[in-house]
Task: structure prediction
Amino acid sequence: MDSADSADGFRPHRVVVLALDGLLPFELGIPHRIFGRPKDALGRPLYEVVTCSVRPPGPVQTDADFSVHVPHGPQALARADTVIVPASYELGPLYEEGVLTDELAAALALIRPGTRLASICTGAYVLAAAGYLDGRPATTHWADAERFQRLFPQIEVDADVLFIDDGDVLTSAGVAAGIDLCLHMVRRDHGTAVANEVARRTVVPPHRDGGQAQYIDRPVPDPQQATTTAARAWALGRLHEPIQLRDMAAQQAMSVRTFTRRFREETGVSPGQWLTQQRVERARQLLESTDLSVDQVARDAGFGTAQSMRQHLQAAVGVTPTAYRRTFRTAGARVDGGGVGALP
Result:
């Protein structure tokens, strides 16, 4: 029996973080912070997070003026359920030519088929050079996306999004987008309530959609100008009601045109897109935590009809409301007695 297994067969999902020379300490810490928090109803960690190197245990240099001691060698990759590759600024021939070093190739060869793979920022170079992203959509830091596309023309690079979930392979933009990606994986594994609790403890927004823009030209509004914060708060309290753009603009005493421009400057999306995102999140919470019928969930979330909600939920998470509820109700039951690896 694995050392992490319990007598009742429970085993936390093992996340292995691959630390490469030149790594960014902030991004290295993201998986440990996010996956290190969730627990089941008995207080048992849902994830086991370990860090490994491509070399035997020892120091790995960061891009700062210190190194970190990594306690595991590449053999840890062979026992991973999820492998995450954070960014590094010293990728050498990988960055210049798109070619893996022999050392890195040997380490990646230890990963079992079916293991979930994820990258943060320029960690995507590792997955790309290993062929994991061939023919797939992927993203990386917006400032590096053009070069990444030239080096790997077989990949469908999207420079505008925070992260891309392509099933068993996920990629994120740079720095803080790694938080969004890891929260998304927790949400996918265990549902909105668990992910929201992790976000609350981490003091970050509980959900930024993967399609949200990486880079907004004016992310901080001019302090001399009115913001759209009050309108968003007003709308969140009325998601179950029809909400018109003019009603939101009226909350800030702005014209629709001015409000729309300010809203996009502050959030990176249009008011309509933002409302849909919030309603999808509300629907997910109700599907997970209540026994309301699908029709009632649709009304309470503001979609009006079950068909409308079905279309939006399918577009956002790829499943129907019934399938989503069944998955997370089943996940909740298994959290008490099974492992994360048993999730569909």
